[in-house]
Write the structure tokens for this entry.
Amino acid sequence: MQKQGWWKQLVEIVSKHPLIFIFLFFLIFPFIVPYKALATQIIIWGLFALGYNICLGYTGMLSFGHAAYFGAGAYFTGIVLIRFWPNIWVGLLGGFLMGGVMAFILGYLCIKRRGIYFAMLTLAFAQLVYFIAFQWVDLTGGDNGLRNIPAVSPSFFGYSLDIHQPLRFYFFVLFFVILSLLALNRILQSPFGHVLQAVRENDQRAKSCGYETNNVRWLAFVISGSISGLAGGLYALYLHFVGIESMYWTTSGQVVMMTLLGGMGSFIGPFIGAGVFLYLEDVLSGLTSNWMIFLGAIFVLCVLFFPAGIWGTIKELSTRRKNGGR
Amino acid sequence: MEWTAIVMQLFTGLSLGMLYVLLALGLSIIFGLLTVVNFAHGAMYMWGAYAGVATMAITGNFWLALIIAPLVVGGYGLIIEKTMIRPLYGRDINYPLLLTFGLQFIMIEIIRIFWGTSDHPFQAPDSLNMPIEILGIFAFPAYRVFIIVVTSAICIALWLFLEKTDLGLIIKAGTRDSLMVKALGIDMGRIWWMVFGIGSALAGLAGILAAPIRSVFPEMGIAMLVECFVVVVVGGMGSLQGAILSGIIMGEAIAITTLFYPQMADIVIFLVMAIVLLIRPSGLFGKAGLLE
């Protein structure tokens, strides 16, 4: 019983102060994974899933087209660095804005529809973007991908910092993850954030309260797209390369899987989902080339038996024990 | 450009459109009755093609393969509905979609384990491998004519089934108001089960029909799935006439752009979709607000 109490308290503390927990955990995270690049990959995809979660978890819109915003961010960051201005801040800002602009345009076309129509429309328009990127070889490199993204270093007031060492790059990415978390935390706790959740719970009622729900959803979609774009930009810096498959709809599917595995509607869920997904991929792909069968099966079981995801199930278990104990 | 080339291309477009029609019909009846968006539909299409490959490898008989492929995939659909999709009824409408999305990866990997990742050659039978001449000007490949004939026959059979049989009447009524049908003492669970099987079988049939003209490989359904979603969205979700009309339109749109401006061939269906949705948000035959 003593042990259960400790466990329960930990879950309670973590779910009350997710930001502090995430921050502390990520400081030690690169030292407990098999290699540092995996940690970097996990927090980049976690950031993508976090952005996606604004859409699915907080506003209740199942988008199947987030590859378009992630990919647009990745390509645009790469293009800015190669062609215009080899400055890492400008490149990432470009990726962030490009994700938002794409979400703004495609969101306009999809946002009026709900539920599965929304899922299918976002999917179809994201495929349109994919094919355009595929054909526009001059800009994107087409099938070969965007190669030779320069390894530029950020400079702070004239002092340049070499980040091209796995651990330093991890903390560079972590800086943006923390920044995004703080920003999203602020947004979700603002009146706007509460309207978002009202739209998720009951669109009609939110509308009756006088909120222009389509605009609210559209804005949430743009925020979500921007964060995805930023994650895409970081991914481009991480790989020094952008592959065309980053825009394919299976990438959208991957972020949906991560978000659901981890648990929707929380800050911690997407990171757990990304971590579990990528860690399993890393381990299983070393054992068999058919590793996707295991991830597919885990996902199917998760949908069938743990729809709240890993973090949601942990929270449920801890509250059930608490109530059962009394 | 010679006008005969255009006629030939229109004809090729029609045969491609017929594959879309078969797949979109399956997606559409499943959606219309069960409100399940089957993301595994592309993988089922792929399984149909591989069921054909397996049957051909064992018996060498194309006609047998043509019958076995839809039966295998249809049977698989029946099992999936009973074991995995049924527990999700009554939950959020997105869950069956997510489940079938995960399922398609398992289906693709199973094929990769048994058949590898490479393309499988698939020959149409010799009796369908010659051109059919019309008026001495056109020489249509017989296999494509065969696809058009089979699909038309399926459409007519499906129409007769829905319009002229009691079961069809129940399905149509269930699409409108399944609660009321249940209240009249009909076991909707069994009807749903059956319809999921029929929809899957149609995907399997499309797969085996496509095998000789498109290459057979484990990911063949991934791109096809998205194209079929576009077809269904343009036709109007849950509308069978819409699926047929829109399938043919999309097949022709691809064929014509391939002839005049091949770079646009992959993009054109999405442009058609954007235009249709801006003019008619619920698709050509869709009813606004169905299950939103």
Remarks:
- DSSP finds ten helices and two strands in chain B.
- The beta strands of chain B are 131-134, 138-141.
